[in-house]
């Protein structure tokens, strides 16, 4: 580990070095009539302050000396498709110099391609310049403002500016905002099939397919497409029985909605199937789009949400539409328990005899759950055909998955602190979703950070994206920030289907959407989200007092056959997932923990982290470190993008018989916090610190239905029905939130249909599996005591 200053956020003097990363200052192009017939131009300068100048002769033609430049060609708006750079051009006459300015900053002269010519009709000099703009340049200011460029042309009489040209990254999201749904109608009845295409830049054009053939309103007077893209059949005909698909396309991609089966019958509607018998579960089939490209199949399957379809074409009718076979790894079990509370009165919370949170009442109910014998490889194989899965890790070590219905459940990645709670009724009744939860290694996902932004949490995916949730799921993950409003600006980022990262929530500010909310606690955050996807917590310091928690961990070989011995000091973001990865890595290296982990608060003070070793018995050991300390550059740590930073101290024992090692290791930030380790152990057989290592697997990765929750379903429903309505003397959900120290989130809870359900869901996410039900029961009982009519003390 060398001591060179890395690709830092700031230099030691405290000045931003973003300018040292290829950005140009806003340089002023000035022309000065320093002597007759010459114009001196100061060009954009290097960050070091060096300036270049060029002396440009006035045009030979005297007729141009009193003319301002006139643009013959101005830059126009363009779209960046995928990663292909775009070109902007302008041409002016008479012009002695032309430069582009983009978002207020001059583009460096070396990035211009210039052509000189003469206008044949006037004899005036003509200059044309071109520049290229890359996706990376546009992404650097993403979310701040739109990226724009304009030309500034010079002549001896002055300057002229061109129009602004905006450069936008083109995309088309995969999920339709509204899709057509299956209908059964009588003949001559009117039909409206709605379609709201995915969000895109430029906006998508829409067309309709009937059994895979284009619907042309000009050829069929019975159909037309509204300005809102809905397909209207004025009078349904028997020939209109077909599968209808909405297709959205722009310069980036072409997306298909789920097909809607329209059935036109001649007289009365067909008889409905009789309702099921209790306790029997019906298989749920989906209708994949065989033979289509991956993006098209992806968008329709995800938004369909594994829902049943009413028409199952045979292979002979249409070979591209095949009915998938039921997944035999999904089984059905019948369990005892009441799902719906008795309606004993609108304002009275009826509690069962005994403890408040006792088991469920009697009743038979059907629950779908994944077979315990189902292997992770089978699940990965099923998902691997979908395009959204291509960016997921190829393995199941950092992944949890399960099959869920309206009863909800929970996914957990063991030993990482990462979980996904799917509350009851978050999945619409009648649908079954296969849901996954994935922890990404940071080298697998490109998360751009601007300025002094820092990654504060793991990068986590939950999906599949695009599925319909009627209530927010709760994603729990650790973080390493010492949060305070005066020191930090913290944002929740979500990656779009196109790969760009967007700010969806700024913590502490009024949320701009009700789709996301975040409860930030000392070491974990709980993200409420109605849209599954890939998330990360990113922060930007507002003062030098802002600090992150580092976990300092010491490892050394468990066996030492040679004289050389290495001590590795890891400086990690203080989250469980990073520690788990290092432990797994060290097990592969044959390492052992040689000291209790410590926490160091690393401040945004521009100062590096230093490590040194001292107090070794010189008669037994010597250090091969030539300098007095090792150093890790500030930005390597502050960015959070390099998870396994460490320094190695190479020691040498003077005899193979020496097994006892005693020394001190200091780790400190210059002018900041520090920690010291007193190392005293036997390198051959010391295992005193093995208890600090978490076991390989703890807990069950997937829990489905009632087993995933501490609060029994019946009791949960009773609490909700009693505390959602405004109560007398404040005996409602607001008081419960106060009792549970959640009263800072009242506005968010109030925005939901059931505030009490949100409170209980958050309690489940925070306290599973070791939550104290007695404390929750006491809090509910305290609420009840404020209103004697709510329930009696004996019922608590």
TrEMBL record:
Recorded GO terms, molecular function? Answer: netrin receptor activity
Keyword check for Disulfide bond, yes or no.
Answer: yes
Any idea where this protein resides?
Cell membrane; Membrane
Could you mention a single GO BP entry for this protein? anterior/posterior axon guidance
Write down the InterPro entries for this protein, in alphabetical order: DEATH-like_dom_sf, Death_dom, Death_UNC5A, Ig-like_dom, Ig-like_dom_sf, Ig-like_fold, Ig_I-set, Ig_sub
SMART domains reported for this sequence: DEATH, IG, IGc2, ZU5
A Pfam family that this protein carries is Unc5_NetrinR_N
Q: How does it sit in the membrane?
A: Single-pass type I membrane protein
Q: Where are the transmembrane segments?
A: none
Any idea which UniProt keywords this protein has? Developmental protein, Disulfide bond, Glycoprotein, Immunoglobulin domain, Membrane, Receptor, Signal, Transmembrane, Transmembrane helix
Domain spans labelled ZU5: 398-541
Where's the Ig-like domain?
Answer: 180-263
In the UniProt record, which is one GO cellular component term? plasma membrane
On whether Hydrolase is a keyword of this UniProt record, the answer is: no
Q: What is the purpose of this protein?
A: Receptor for netrin required for axon guidance. Mediates axon repulsion of neuronal growth cones in the developing nervous system upon ligand binding.
**Family classification:** Belongs to the unc-5 family.
Q: Write the protein's name.
A: Netrin receptor UNC5
- Which organism is the protein's source? Zonotrichia albicollis (White-throated sparrow)
Lineage, uppermost ranks? Eukaryota, Metazoa, Chordata, Craniata, Vertebrata
Gene that encodes it = UNC5A
